[in-house]
Design a protein that fits this description.
Endonuclease I-creI, 4-stranded antiparallel β-sheet, 3-stranded antiparallel β-sheet, alpha+beta, 34% helix, 14% strand
C-alpha cells in the first residue's frame, strides 16, 4: 500500500474520510463523496469584497477534482447536484484494483460515520500527510468570519467538522495536525452534552475542531474560493488580533471549572468511552485515547478530583 500511496491518493482518502460512502448494489460499486453547502450569504470580514455563490463555486472546484481522480481511479467520475449538496460519484462496474485498494486503505469500513485514519497515512512522508488533511479540509471545513475567538473582532478560526457518530477520527486528525505537521489545534468542541449543551438542549451535533487561521497555513485549501476566504482570515489575525498558540497538550491541562450534571451523560448515543460526566473538552480527548503531550509535574503532585466521577 505504501507503493500505491501518492499525493493524489492521499487527497482522495482525505475527502473520503470526511464525507465519503462506499455503496454496493449487485455488481455495481459506487464511491460517493458529498459536499454540503448552505444557501445563506457567505460570512466575510468587515470591508471584504469577496462574494461567492457556494453551489457554483463548488461545482467548478469539483470539476477540477473530478479530472484529478478520474485518471487515478480509471473509472467514470461525475459531479451531481443533490438537495443542498454537490456530490462526486465514481462508478465501478468491476471489482477493480483501485476499488480494492481503497477498500483496503479504509479497513473495509463503508462510511465517514466510522472511518479512521489509515495507519499508512500516520507514518507517511509530510507531503502525503498534508494532502490527506487538505482533502479533509476541502470537504468539511468552510472558512467563515462567524467562528471567532471571544470578542467580535477577535482571532478568526478554521473549523473542521466531523460527523457526530465518529468519535475517533477527530483525535487521529488532531495527531496528524499537531505531531506530523506542527499545526496547533486550539480545541475540539465535542458533541457531548457536557460540552455542547451543558444546561440542556440539543447536543448530538457535529464535532468541531477549531484552529486559529494563521496556524492552518501549512495546510490551506485546494478550492480557490475557500483559499481566498482563508487568506483574508489569516491577514485579519496577523494585523488586528496578533497572538500566540500552543500545541494542545491534554495531559498537562487542569480543569478550571466544573460543569453541571446533564441528564444525557449516559445516553446510548454516546460511545462507552465518554458515557459519563466531563468538566472540560480536553478530558473527552483523553478518554478517547489521545496520547499527545506529557504529564505536567505539577499535576502529578496533586490529586485531580475534579468531580468527574459516576455520582
Amino acid at each position: 500500500m505504501v507503493d500505491y500511496l501518492d499525493p493524489d491518493v492521499a487527497y482522495l482518502l482525505g475527502m473520503i474520510m470526511a464525507r465519503g460512502v462506499f455503496q454496493t448494489e449487485g455488481d455495481i460499486r459506487r464511491l460517493v463523496i458529498r459536499f454540503p453547502y448552505r444557501l445563506d450569504t457567505v460570512h466575510t470580514l468587515p470591508g471584504s469584497t469577496l462574494s461567492f455563490d457556494r453551489e457554483t463555486e463548488l461545482r467548478l472546484c469539483l470539476d477540477d477534482v473530478r479530472r484529478r481522480i478520474t485518471e487515478l481511479l480509471g473509472v467514470d467520475v461525475q459531479v451531481e447536484r443533490l438537495q443542498h449538496e454537490v456530490a462526486l460519484m465514481a462508478v465501478f462496474t468491476k471489482n477493480t484494483m483501485s476499488w480494492r485498494n481503497l477498500q483496503l486503505l479504509c479497513d473495509s469500513r463503508s462510511s465517514y460515520r466510522d472511518f479512521q485514519v489509515p495507519e499508512v497515512i500516520r507514518s507517511a512522508p509530510r507531503d502525503i500527510v498534508r494532502e490527506f488533511v487538505r482533502g479533509i479540509a476541502d470537504t468539511s471545513a468552510e472558512p467563515s468570519a462567524v467562528d471567532h475567538y471571544m470578542e467580535p473582532e477577535g482571532r478568526q478560526r478554521i473549523v473542521i467538522q466531523f460527523q457526530h457518530d465518529n468519535w475517533l477520527l477527530p483525535i487521529q486528525v488532531c495527531f496528524l495536525l499537531q505531531v506530523r505537521l506542527g499545526v496547533k489545534v486550539q480545541e475540539i468542541l465535542w458533541g457531548h452534552p457536557n460540552i455542547r449543551a451543558p444546561r440542556g438542549g440539543a447536543w448530538a451535533k457535529e464535532h468541531r475542531m477549531r484552529i486559529f487561521a494563521e496556524e492552518f497555513i501549512p495546510v490551506g485549501f485546494s478550492f480557490p474560493f475557500k483559499q481566498r476566504l482563508f487568506e483574508e482570515l489569516v491577514k485579519w489575525n496577523q494585523e488586528r488580533a496578533p497572538g500566540s498558540a500552543k500545541l494542545c497538550n491534554p495531559k498537562a491541562r487542569a480543569v478550571r471549572s466544573r460543569k453541571p450534571r446533564h441528564q444525557d451523560e449516559r445516553s446510548d448515543r454516546l460511545p462507552c468511552q465518554v458515557r459519563r460526566h466531563f468538566n472540560a473538552a480536553f478530558k473527552v480527548c483523553v478518554a478517547l485515547g489521545c496520547q499527545q503531550g506529557r504529564r505536567s509535574p505539577q499535576l502529578t503532585l496533586i490529586d485531580e478530583d475534579d468531580g468527574e466521577g459516576d455520582g
